[in-house]
Amino acid sequence: DSGVTQTPKHLITATGQRVTLRCSPRSGDLSVYWYQQSLDQGLQFLIQYYNGEERAKGNILERFSAQQFPDLHSELNLSSLELGDSALYFCASSPLGRTEEHSPLHFGNGTRLTVT
Amino acid sequence: GEDVEQSLFLSVREGDSSVINCTYTDSSSTYLYWYKQEPGAGLQLLTYIFSNMDMKQDQRLTVLLNKKDKHLSLRIADTQTGDSAIYFCADFTGGGNKLTFGTGTQLKVEL
Predict the structure, then answer these.
(1) End-to-end alpha-carbon separation of chain A, Å?
(2) What is the predicted pLDDT for the residue at B34?
(3) What pLDDT, on a 0 to 100 scale, did the predictor assign at position A51?
(4) How high is the pLDDT of residue B28?
């Protein structure tokens, strides 16, 4: 068990809808990362938050947004969903987030999103 | 941009050693990682190596890094059926503050 908790485990929704994925980082970790895993794109970095602030942005669509709350949990919001958004969405956390320091990323078990 | 490549499949017999290879392009990579993903599960951190190291050993796992050739390998000694999974190589670059993953190598362990 990595200590990173993601809910829900599975989500099935229709095109055009909006969903929210939730992540609770490991105790003490200040950084949260979101990744998308799909068959055609592999594992793609979406966005990182550190202590409530956006720190790095990857291949995140404008229809997607995220935030990190004062208690350090994070939510990934996906709107105007398309069939191609079906994927496994992972959250990872680490203690630090500054570029000059580093510690390993620990991943949750993911949320499997199916858009029908 | 960064690119990390791995072969897609590897099949070994139980008890043999497995060697999974990875190449990366970013010369500013500071840490290189190996993650394991079992069916229906998340990404489990196996080990990682700092870019100024050549080798790291952790029980049955040995990581070799050739920084000049930008080549990373993961050796699993005495491979067991429980090692069957997809193995991802990833590199971390401080400037981008993110992990870039390879495509993953599916390891199949046969009896």
Answers:
(1) 31
(2) 96
(3) 92
(4) 79
| Residue B8 identity (one-letter amino acid) | L
The confidence band for B95, taking pLDDT boundaries of 50, 70 and 90, is low
Q: Do B45 and A104 touch (CB under 8 A)?
A: yes
Contacts (Cβ under 8 Å, ≥6 apart) of A104: A94, B33, B45, B48
- DSSP assignment of B46-95, as one string? EEEEETT-SEEEETTEEEEEETTTTEEEEEESS--GGG-EEEEEEEEETT
**Is residue B58 within 8 Å of residue B75, measured between CB atoms?**
no
Which residues in A have their CB inside 8 Å of a CB on B? 2, 4, 33, 35, 42-43, 45, 48, 55-56, 58, 90, 92, 97, 99-100, 102, 104-110
- Rounded distance between C-alpha atoms, residue B90 and residue B23, angstroms: 10
Measured in degrees and rounded to the nearest 5, phi and psi for residue A71 equal: -85, 5
CB-CB contact of B65 with B53 (8 Å): yes
- The model's confidence at residue B97, banded by pLDDT at 50, 70 and 90, is low
Q: Which residue has the tokens 């995220």?
A: A66
Phi-psi region for residue B104, left (φ > 0), alpha (ψ -120 to 50) or beta? Answer: left
The span from the CA of A53 to the CA of A91, in Å, is 16
Q: CA-CA distance, B103 to B106, in Å (whole number)?
A: 10
Whole-number Å distance between alpha carbons of B16 and B41: 25
Residues of A in contact with B44 (CB under 8 A): 2, 107
